[in-house]
């Protein structure tokens, strides 16, 4: 390789690195902006009642986390029951609740204490087809919510439309 070819190669490598750094800088800026929104949400929530917190979740979570729909279920460990506390889908009825065993994905999240990420829910082991009206989709994340070591609820995030609950 002659000197001119070597210089061109170095210039292309440097240009590639500059482009990568610009992209990373842009992503970092976007992440920091979303982090600012999340911190603001956390500070705001500290001053609110439970009902107000649920309303803030409806208004802010989809924007902050870039999801279309979410559900927040409170978990009653003694009754093994999940009760819908907050959501942002117009077709889900208020007061919806189900037993822990009625949703394999939420059951696993509440028993394992770990989040579950499914890129295609319809082919996952949690899919129940028509038996579970809340899940019939692609992307899904289910996160157990904990205070210290106790599960208090479950958050579900989706980028698709829920089916109507029965």
Question: Could you characterize what this model shows?
Answer:
There is one protein chain. Helix 1 runs antiparallel to helix 2. The model is unreliable at 160-166 (pLDDT under 50). 41% of the residues lie in helices and 23% in strands. It has 2 domains: 1-47; 50-158, GAF domain (Beta-Lactamase), CATH 3.30.450. A 6-stranded antiparallel β-sheet has the order 3-2-1-6-5-4. The protein is built from 3 helices and 6 strands; from the N terminus they run ααβββαβββ. Strand 5 and strand 6 form a beta hairpin. With 166 residues, the chain is an alpha+beta fold.
How are the SSEs ordered, and which strands pair?
Layout: H1 3-45, H2 50-65, E1 69-76, E2 81-87, E3 97-99, H3 104-112, E4 116-118, E5 140-147, E6 150-158
Antiparallel strand pairs: 1-2, 1-6, 2-3, 4-5, 5-6
Helix pairs in contact: 1-2
Total number of distinct structural domains: 2
Question: What's the level 1 CATH class of the largest domain?
Answer: Alpha Beta
**Rg measurement, Å:** 22 Å
- SSE order, one letter for each helix or strand: HHEEEHEEE
Q: Label the structural class.
A: alpha+beta
The major pleated sheet works out as: 6 strands, antiparallel
**Overall average pLDDT:** 79
Measured as a percent range, the helix fraction is 40-55%
Entry summary:
The chain is built from three helices and six strands. With 166 residues, it is α+β, with helices and mostly antiparallel strands.
């Amino acid at each position: 390789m002659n000197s001119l070819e070597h210089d061109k190669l170095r210039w292309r490598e440097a240009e590639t690195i500059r482009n990568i750094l610009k992209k990373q800088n842009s992503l970092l800026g976007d992440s920091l902006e979303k982090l600012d929104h999340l911190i603001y949400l956390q500070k705001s929530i500290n001053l609110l009642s439970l009902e107000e917190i649920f309303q803030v979740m409806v208004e802010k979570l989809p924007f902050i986390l870039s999801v279309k729909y979410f559900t927040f279920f409170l978990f009653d460990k003694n009754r093994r029951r999940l009760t819908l506390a907050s959501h942002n889908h117009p077709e889900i009825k208020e007061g919806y609740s189900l037993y822990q065993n009625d949703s394999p994905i939420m059951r696993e999240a509440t028993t394992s204490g770990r989040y579950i990420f499914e890129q295609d829910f319809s082919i996952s082991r949690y899919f129940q087809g028509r038996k579970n009206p809340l899940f019939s989709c692609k992307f899904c994340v289910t996160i157990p919510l904990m205070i210290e070591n106790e599960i208090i609820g479950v958050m579900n995030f989706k980028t698709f439309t829920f089916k109507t609950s029965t």
